[in-house]
Design goal:
Layout (H helix, E strand, L loop, with lengths): L2 E5 L13 E4 H4 L4 H15 L11 E6 L5 H14 L4 E9 L2 H10 L4 E5 L11 E7 L8 H11 L4 E5 L10 E5 L2 E6 L3 H10 L2 H9 L4 E4 L5 H12 L7 E2 L20 H8 L6 E5 L6 E5 L2 E2 L2 H11 L13 E4 L5 H9 L3 E4 L4 H8 L5 E4 L3 E4 L7 H15 L3 H12 L1 E12 L1 H14 L7 E2 L2 E8 L2 E2 L6 E2 L4 E5 L4 E6 L7 E11 L9 H4 L1 H11 L1 H5 L6 E2 L1
Parallel strand pairs: 3-4, 3-5, 4-9, 10-11, 10-12, 15-16, 15-17
Antiparallel strand pairs: 1-7, 2-6, 5-6, 8-9, 12-13, 13-14, 17-18, 19-26, 19-27, 20-21, 21-24, 22-23, 24-25, 25-26
Helix pairs in contact: 2-3, 2-5, 7-13, 10-11
Bound molecules: 1-O-phosphono-alpha-D-glucopyranose (G1P) and zinc ion.
Length: about 550
């Protein structure tokens, strides 16, 4: 068997979005589509390694969330890796790895980088989505320079270098040879579990479960299942059945593996029953997102980050204090208030986990999070769903307080950031572009005016200068901030695969601790009206309400 050179044609549309290249399975299964992207990636990694290290002769980590096409794609990538001089691939058994687990394995084993096969929270199956993403040696998503270089390379690629060896057995643990390359099939959970053991008080948690503490974790038929089962039920002694929908299925059993109250309605229903468990959570397709639910009480992701910051000292892995915290721009300012009270630096970055990487690597922050059900810390360079679940359970155990009591305490201390995100999905791309262009054109005239009864203090298109490497990211979302610091943010999704998705983020701060039962959608109505007046969403999209409100 040997490596062969296969002529190919470039594909025009291989530009990765917020989190890698995501397309319909039917796009990925076109001849050479996946191959072109992977060959381009390998060419760039072999040619332009900024630190002088090339991929050839090194170790790569490989695995995905088990969705439809995962197993086929793994074989394709292994053969390309062998054809491009990779010395060793650490492959999760069955081609499986959660996104945070890939990050953990890259870091613990000091691999050159890793490839994650996932379209995260997007539906799977033959008609669903597939995706691929490269993570660098720090365990985090590739930066924009590398991503752009790979994209440029896909535009001119003319040949693939691939092994013609037969498929290997990806379900058998241990070493196998693929031409000159070694494939080591490893337990996808082991390294990740070792990291969790270092951070959390497993003895305390075991005791909690022994005393009857009840948890329901909904893995949504996605890759988080095996991880949650091994750690919660296996190691911590939670009763069997604590983790539900625990078997990763190629189409997620038809569920939309995006943990929000709409998609995880079964969990919400369980948490509202009279016999509800003490703690509930759900994770997404690749297990990097989390939603935390108490008895009859849903925690907003922005509040979750603020609360974790406030109580990090109770968790063994963070007992010495935090270096700082970071949130994405559309995430609410709840964490800013907590950070200020604690005297911690707080950074505001564009949307997407990759922007946290430099801050974490440089020791500027320990915790970070996004409004989109993502929280994480410096233990890996991805957001981490099960980590957040363990953090919360550890917090409940160490404080002796319920989820709801903890959040209400936070609101009493810092006021409440009433928050909602309205998504308008599958808008024709030209309509979405017109809407954003109209908003951008209006920005300079807005500050100092009153629109739809709202007094506007500031209006801009968020730009970010990375405090570590000085790189500038422009046009990261339009912010309209009112004199009382309420705000509306508009941005287009970078992860959708059908037309454009407009996200409208609404936030209002309510200082009065007696008004904690405010219903968010009602309380945010003036901001919804402002958004409509500024952006003409209804007229331009022909949609009279959002597709999803979280
Ligand atoms: C979405 C979320 C963003 C998250 C990303 C990847 O991106 O909004 O916070 O980092 O998924 O999970 P978007 O579709 O908004 O570009
Ligand atoms: Zn995800």
């Amino acid at each position: 068997m040997a490596s062969q050179t296969i002529p190919t044609e470039p594909f025009a549309g291989q530009r990765p979005g917020t989190s890698g290249l995501r397309k319909k399975v039917t796009v990925f299964t076109q001849p050479h589509y996946l191959e072109n992207f992977v060959q381009s990636l390998f060419d760039v990694l072999n040619a332009t390694a900024a630190d002088g290290r090339a991929l050839s002769g090194q170790t790569l980590v490989l695995g995905g969330d088990g969705r439809f096409h995962n197993r086929v794609a793994v074989q394709t990538i292994l053969k390309l890796a062998a054809g491009n001089g990779v010395a060793r691939v650490l492959l999760g058994r069955g081609g499986i790895f959660s996104t945070p687990a890939v990050s953990a394995v890259i870091r613990r084993r000091q691999a050159f980088g890793g490839i994650v096969l996932s379209a995260s929270h997007n539906p799977g199956g033959p008609d669903g989505d597939f995706g691929i993403k490269y993570n660098a040696g720090n365990g985090g998503p590739a930066n924009e320079t590398l991503t752009e270089a790979v994209y440029a390379r896909t535009q001119g690629l003319r040949e693939l270098r691939s092994s013609d060896a037969p498929d290997i057995d990806i379900d058998r643990l241990g070493l196998q040879q693929l031409d000159d390359m070694v494939v080591e099939v490893i337990d996808p959970v082991a390294d990740y579990a070792a990291v969790m053991r270092e951070l959390f008080d497993f003895d305390l948690l075991r005791g909690m479960f022994q005393r009857g503490f009840r948890v329901r974790v909904d893995a949504m038929n996605a890759v988080g299942g095996p991880y949650a089962k091994a750690i919660l039920e296996g190691e911590l002694g939670a009763p069997a059945g604590t983790v539900v929908n625990a078997e990763p299925l190629e189409d997620f059993g038809g569920l939309h593996p995006d943990p929000n109250p709409v998609n995880a309605e079964d969990l919400i229903a369980h948490m509202q029953r009279p016999d509800a468990p003490d703690f509930g959570a759900a994770m997404d397709g690749d297990a990097d997102r989390n939603m935390v639910v108490g008895r009859n009480f849903v925690v907003s992701p922005s509040d979750s980050l603020a609360l974790m910051t406030a109580h990090a000292g109770l968790i063994p892995g963070y007992k010495d204090g935090l270096l700082g915290v970071a949130r994405s721009m559309p995430t609410s300012a709840a964490v800013d208030r907590v950070a200020k009270a604690m005297g911690l630096p707080c950074f505001e970055t564009p949307t997407g986990w990759k922007f946290f990487g430099n801050l974490l690597d440089d020791g500027k922050v320990t915790l970070c999070g996004e409004e989109s059900y993502g929280t994480g810390s410096d233990h890996v360079r991805e957001k981490d769903g099960l980590w957040a679940v363990l953090f919360w359970i550890n917090l409940v155990a160490a404080s002796g307080k319920s989820v709801e009591a903890l959040v209400r305490e936070l609101w009493t201390a810092h006021g409440r950031c009433v928050y909602s995100r309205h998504d308008y999905e599958a808008i024709p791309t030209d309509k979405a572009d017109t809407l954003m262009a109209g908003l951008r054109a209006a920005l300079p005239s807005l500050p100092g005016t009153t629109v739809a009864g709202c007094a506007i203090a500031l209006a801009d298109d968020f730009a970010y200068t990375d405090p570590v490497d000085g790189s500038v990211s422009q046009k990261q979302g339009i912010r309209v901030i009112l004199t009382d610091r309420s705000r509306v943010v508009f941005r287009l999704s970078g992860t959708g695969t059908e037309g454009a998705t407009l996200r409208v983020y609404l936030e209002r701060h309510e200082p009065d601790a007696t008004r904690h039962d405010l219903e968010a959608q009602t309380a945010l109505q003036p901001l919804v009206a402002l958004a409509e007046t500024l952006a003409h969403i209804r007229t331009l999209t022909n949609m009279d309400k959002p597709t999803v409100m979280t």
